[in-house]
Amino acid sequence: MQTIGEIMTKELVTVKPEDSVARVAELMERTRIGGLPVVEGGRLVGIISSRDIRRCHPNRLIADAMTKEVVTVPPTCSLWEAKELLERHGIERLVVVDGDCPVGVVTKSLLYAELGKHIDALTGLQQAAFLQRKALELLQDGKEIAIIFLDLDDFGAVDKELGHVVGDEILCRVAKILGGVVEEGFDYLFRYAGDEFAVVTVKPLEEARKLALRMVNAISEEEWPLGIKVAASAGVAGGRRASPREGDLEPYTVSDLINMASLASTRAKKERRQVVVAGEIELREANCIQQCPETV
Predict the structure, then answer these.
(1) Dihedral of the CA atoms 170, 172, 178, 181 (nearest 10)?
(2) CATH 3.10.580.10 spans which residues of the chain?
(3) Which residues pair with residue 275 across a beta bridge?
(4) Report field, pTM of the whole predicted structure over 0.85
(5) Where in the chain is CATH 3.30.70.270?
(6) How far is CA 172 from CA 55, 183, 191, in A?
(7) What is the CATH code of the structural domain delimited by 121-295?
(8) May I ask the CATH class of domain 4-115?
(9) Long-range contacts made by residues 248-252, C-beta under 8 angstroms, separation at least 24?
């Protein structure tokens, strides 16, 4: 999983509480940095922004103008978590700390540029790699998850008969339809690959099944151009664990759930069923994973 520590700016420009507002204003102008960590004795004690500077007299001390409650993250913080923090607090940068010691900074523009590498250019959805990361984050946060894998039926025929331009338009509309069905804060939608979409949800398995059914129905009930009929099949895998996980087996759990949901969608397509549930499973370590991880 990619972390903030991998992309943060490590060469920090910092100021002291006893510095004057005038000096820091000149430093910001020279470095073109709009927010600087305030450090005392190697410890982070605040942050000063260009907005704070504008509000204060040049002769005031930074200690009087700085914001003392700083939103910080450790180097191990994921890009996804950092994005949520930036948006929740409405700020432009996060200070990266190791304990109380600042070790880097990540700006909103830098973070979004990195996240943009994982955005599907056609649909605007997060790509498959982020599905695994988000699912892993939710598991590590103690939440139970279910994976929904949705595959459009006979979509290759659309590309062959009507061309890829029409096919791309359909994929974009499918993404919007699915985006209108999922529930923010509970469901996370991704474009997996080609004509495949996936959702990781924190809803119980039965609710995940109902969500999958709503997604499939929303696609089939849409009025498509040129008399096209678009349908989809979905597979669901997930459940609850009976005992706490030990060790670092969450990545195997995520991969296993994705595989099970994918196979369930294939089965749904073969059996001409809208949704197939792979079966309730307990998210726990399995001896076969520990002994034979290559089979997962």
Answers:
(1) -110
(2) 4-115
(3) 234
(4) no
(5) 121-295
(6) 46, 19, 10
(7) 3.30.70.270
(8) alpha beta
(9) 249/285, 249/289, 249/290, 250/136, 250/139, 250/140, 251/132, 251/136, 252/289, 252/293, 252/296
Structure tokens at 98: 């190791």
pLDDT in tens, the chain (296 residues): 678 999 999 999 999 999 999 999 999 999 999 999 999 999 999 999 999 999 899 999 999 999 999 999 999 998 878 988 999 999 999 999 999 899 999 999 999 888 888 788 888 888 887 888 888 888 888 888 999 999 999 888 777 778 888 888 989 999 999 999 999 889 999 999 889 999 999 999 999 999 999 999 999 999 887 778 899 999 999 865 544 445 455 556 788 888 899 999 999 999 889 999 985 433 333 233 333 433 22
